[in-house]
Amino acid sequence: MSSKKQLHLTAFMRPVSLHTGAWRYPGSYPDANFNLKHLMSFIQALEAAKFDAFFMADHLAVLNMPVEALKRSHTVTSFEPFTLLSALSQVTSRIGLAATASTTYDEPYHIARRFASLDHLSDGRAAWNIVTTGNPESSKNFGLDEHVQHSERYKRAREFYDVVTGLWDSFADDAFVRDAETGVYVDPEKIHTLNHKGDDLKVKGPLNIARPVQGWPVIVQAGQSEPGRQLAAETAEAVFCSPKDIDAGQALYADIKGRAKAAGRNPEHIKILPAAMILVADTVEEAQQKRLKLDSLVHYDSAISSLSISLGTDASKFDPDGSLPSEDELPATNASHTSRASVIALAKSEGLTVRQLAGRYGGYAGLAFVGTAESIADEMERWLDADAADGFTVTFPFLPEGLEAVTQKLVPELQRRGVFRTEYEGSTLREHLGLPRPVNRFFENAEHAQNGELKTVTNGNVKSANNAKRKLKSEGSIQESRRSSRRRV
Amino acid sequence: MSSKKQLHLTAFMRPVSLHTGAWRYPGSYPDANFNLKHLMSFIQALEAAKFDAFFMADHLAVLNMPVEALKRSHTVTSFEPFTLLSALSQVTSRIGLAATASTTYDEPYHIARRFASLDHLSDGRAAWNIVTTGNPESSKNFGLDEHVQHSERYKRAREFYDVVTGLWDSFADDAFVRDAETGVYVDPEKIHTLNHKGDDLKVKGPLNIARPVQGWPVIVQAGQSEPGRQLAAETAEAVFCSPKDIDAGQALYADIKGRAKAAGRNPEHIKILPAAMILVADTVEEAQQKRLKLDSLVHYDSAISSLSISLGTDASKFDPDGSLPSEDELPATNASHTSRASVIALAKSEGLTVRQLAGRYGGYAGLAFVGTAESIADEMERWLDADAADGFTVTFPFLPEGLEAVTQKLVPELQRRGVFRTEYEGSTLREHLGLPRPVNRFFENAEHAQNGELKTVTNGNVKSANNAKRKLKSEGSIQESRRSSRRRV
């Protein structure tokens, strides 16, 4: 392995792409939302390129949009992440599988169980993207009239994490004896009943699935708000964030690593992976042209409303093919001046018309690297060297072409420079990311596992684990040991 | 196809088998609870034998057992069904995939979405086994102190079914236009917002996934209580039941089909599939010997407590290798006399010792067909001809041997007799079971779809659908049409 700091790459996917215009791009698969074959080809290409993980974005609702935008949106449907990633686990063998799951609208027992199951099915490749679900429409699909408040969501998320990781630790790694001779299947001393009772959650346990292959699936977190950063610092092992440029990236990197250190964690064990749309072509100009073409495929009716929001004024009154009026000519606004200023700056720096600007804001307005393999590799190395990133959460402008350009042009360039692996060295996602296997809080010696060793120190001689441990107790009933088919369901 | 009434066969699976002693049986895979390879080989063998479906049993807790039983139980862990079946969907192409999901401890939006996703991933092979979760331990893993009452569970289940099926109907089958030229992806007129507000559930919709391939995944139901039978009659398309013999099977069959008819349904569209453990060998005596061996592998410590429950008295006081005391000699009991009487009858008819009886009750005491391919095929035909069954929910005594005996000995015999398919005729589970594709209540003409046609009658000229329909409305906000990576998670 190269002695250079290594880049990590995850692919942040929506089936048709994150960009609103992508389904109209030549060669795209507009039916990828419910056509598994396309997604299989994407993940296999990413695995061949040695990506760390395939990351499935998710929503718990059809987003609230005006009909004009809705009818043009390929984001209206998608596969559900657990079912999708479980299916994809069978056509891949190394790449990590990150699913988004909500702490606000789901139950920790279900979440713990599904991720543990995915981790077993994939031989240790699962990751949990903890989200608190920012989209207010979701609440209405789960019995509520109003969205749960931001601070409440983050408070519950923190407790939810404790419960889920506690459930994952229900069984010691060596709990299963399976001695056919003596008839002992499992050692009851190596099963822990959580008995959690907190402010928001009450969960008894134990989980009814063996400890995940990775100990715990990798924890991913995305929030950039104050409570979001703190949650990331305390819990996340990979952070998916959206700084607008390298300076913002550097600040965020330092902030989250600093918070992690303050929380008593090793900052090396939290990887900061800014999201970036990557558009690679053979020349910078060609890449820029492709981007303009892509943005032009966002229908003007929905694009202009996105621009209007960013400007804080109705942009449909401007000449689509003219340039943006100057700041003095724009009507006054109560909306964010930072947002307006960045629109104006962008229009100026790239010389965009109102229509092009609208396409940008209606399509994808986040951090983007648009250029050649060399120019983008330079940019990525700059971020790496500036401690602004440990790698990137890559989004593709359009599929499959945009993905193929990354895997066939950019990745070989990164490999040539010695900053990205040419082969997977381990088999689990933790190993790809250089993360230790978490200790089992109930059955392992914390000092022992700090350096990521896999061996279990069993209970008995470990004070802290011993104190925390409560044994699974018989509850006096033998009812459930009867076998009847009805009880099996 | 033969003109004889056709048998349907589904496999009711726990990874290691349903029988408590099975993990100790020679050749078994005691680690199948988290070793996918074994389950892949099982489902592939079942598909080669043209089984209708692979049915995954489930629990939402580690069952409450005394430590003596717990430590001997391979049921303590299992894969989670959605993740498991999604993975298995990729190594099979025809066999149905039935997952158990609880209406008591889950949310209809999640359930609707996961089954729709599984149905898309598997090209129309999903089935939902609706359960209300009978195991009281589960409640404690979902924030409750007490188990939800039986009648409340069934009331919620009925409403839950209405919501889930309503969410599956969110999109007309032809809602997706995907016209790259005009930029129209979906027709908003063909999206329905459910706006359900009932006693137990409030769910807005629409679901964020296209209508399942099968319209709705097949509905399976297992309850045999009064409300369980009624729920089955109103909703189920396949009923998994546990009659103790052919007479009980006939009565249950007539009762559920009668209730379905009274509820306005076509009784042909509800298949009654009694559960039976099937043990096939080359001679009846060999099969019986295998069963005795299997029962003997249930450890006496846990077996005897099962027998004690069935007898309503402590059976550990009897001589394990003697015969059961006569009814007069047994202490009086407040427990079920029916249960005691059936134990006594069994001991007599098979001449079992106390130890053998305990193994039976500790292992699997439900309906079993133990014999040769011919004797079991005879028995199955008897049930079919007596209108006691439309097929069977098969459980295997031990794996893989017990499964191989069924697929290699019994199935060819059934095929030779012309009562079981030699090839799949359709591609979806509905087609295997001879069930129609449900009409979309919001977008299709009910009369049209009654005979199972797949074509959609679009809205506009259909009065009933039109009346029920409420269009997705814009809610005035264009916020969500902005593209920012944070909103994607």
TrEMBL record, chains A, B:
Keywords: Flavoprotein, FMN, Monooxygenase, Oxidoreductase. Gene3D superfamilies: Luciferase-like domain. GO terms for molecular function: monooxygenase activity; oxidoreductase activity, acting on paired donors, with incorporation or reduction of molecular oxygen. Residues 465-489 are annotated as: Disordered. Residues 27-383 form the Luciferase-like domain. InterPro entries: Diverse_substr_monoxygenases, Luciferase-like_dom, Luciferase-like_sf, NTA_MOA. The keyword Oxidoreductase applies. CDD domains: Nitrilotriacetate_monoxgenase (cd01095). Belongs to the NtaA/SnaA/DszA monooxygenase family. This is Alkanesulfonate monooxygenase.
